[in-house]
Amino acid sequence: MNNFLSISVYGSAIILILIGLYGVLAKKNLLKVVIGLSIVDSGLHLLFVAIGYVKDGTAPIFSPEVIGKNVQMVDPVPQALVLTAIVIGFAVTAVALSLVVRLYRHYNTAHIDEIKNLKW
Amino acid sequence: MIKKIIVLFILVVVGIFLIEAFTKIPFGVKRSGVSDFYLIESPQTNKVANVVTSIVVNFRGFDTLGEVTVLFLAATGLGSILYRRRKKKFHEARVKIASSRILQIGAQMIFPVVILLGAYIFIHGHLTPGGGFQGGVIIATGFLLLMISYRGFSVNHRTISWIESLAGMTFVGFGLIGLIKGTTFLQNFLPTGELNNLISGGIIGIIYVAVGFKVASELTGALDTFLLNNKQVTHLEDEE
């Protein structure tokens, strides 16, 4: 059971990261590139939280039902880090999107090949 | 075509190495480390039920201040990148097509509930899952609902920046009071109360409420900037 859980969680995180990287590398539309970046973000967050998982652990909240019973709790540190990472990811996405809007306004397109000097 | 092959090759290599790395990390195993300290210290010293909140606001409070600053810088950068002089026909069309009557009345009915939910989540950030960032995002979604359903709706940027500055100053002010009364920045100087009470945890609850207000106002301002600019672009296209 644990093995299945680990394969599915790590697997889906890795698949999300690869999908996002594919979007960043292969897509021509700048909006899709930004979407790819945020998909990579989601994969990384899933990976962080999965590393902090402890078998049969509950959420790290000392609610009245939990106090006094010797329960196992998952690692709270990766969750706090992911909270930070989500906010930073939002900031990066917002600034990237604003640059895309600015480029669109200048060249009237968000397609990489039609914007000069941005071909590879 | 050759580009696609290169990309797929890179992805396969990255994927193989990620799988290699992550099969070596044991899953679901308790790792000894700083988390034990947090799990013991948070309910005993801080009297905060939600350990994640305790870490984010108290043990790593300075880090959270930096995070809020990054959010503020992003909102400012957004405004300066997308800046454009306002036109006269400004209020007419935020969205090109007016939304239907059903959406408008539904938005009216849902909006107060969304705001209430957001406020609940950031006020109870130290007791239940959630906190300032999550509650702030929920409140901003409420405003987004109004923005997309009413063409004339716009938020007052002056009010937003006042709320934002006040919330930020509350955060820094409580940190400085901690520095004066205690020993370190963001020292918990208020009485901590009892575990699982609404008024507990000293400054942690107050700071998370301030963070909630700050995030909500920043995100609302950012959404407003984006939608505003779309509209101006469509206007220019109309004129040309």
Question: Would you give an account of this structure?
Answer:
The complex is a heterodimer of chains A (120) and B (240). In chain A, 66% of the residues lie in helices and 0% in strands. Chain A has 120 residues and is an all-alpha fold. Chain A has a single domain, classed as Orthogonal Bundle (Helix Hairpins). In chain A, helix 1 runs antiparallel to helix 2 and helix 2 packs antiparallel against helix 3. Chain A is elongated, with a radius of gyration of 20 Å. Chain A starts with a helix and ends in a 13-residue tail after the last helix. The relative contact order of chain A is 0.13. With 240 residues, chain B is mostly helical. Chain B has one domain. Chain B has eight helices and no strands. In chain B, helix 2 packs across helix 3. The longest helix of chain B has 37 residues. At the A-B interface, helix 1, helix 2 and helix 3 of A face helix 1, helix 2, helix 3, helix 4 and helix 8 of B.
The helix fraction of chain B, in percent, is over 70%
- Number of domain modules of chain B: 1
Described by the principal axes of the CA atoms, the overall outline of chain B is globular
The number of strands of chain A is 0
State the CATH architecture of chain A.
Orthogonal Bundle
The end-to-end distance of chain B, rounded to whole angstroms, is 38 Å
Q: Could you say how many structural domains of chain A there are in total?
A: 1
Secondary structure category of chain B: mainly alpha
Indicate the radius of gyration of chain B in whole angstroms.
23 Å
| Largest sheet, strands/sense/barrel of chain B | none
Unreliable stretches of chain A? none
Q: Write the CATH fold name of chain A.
A: Helix Hairpins
Broad CATH class of chain A? Mainly Alpha
Low-confidence parts of chain B lasting 5 or more residues at pLDDT below 50? 232-240
Order of helices and strands of chain A: HHH
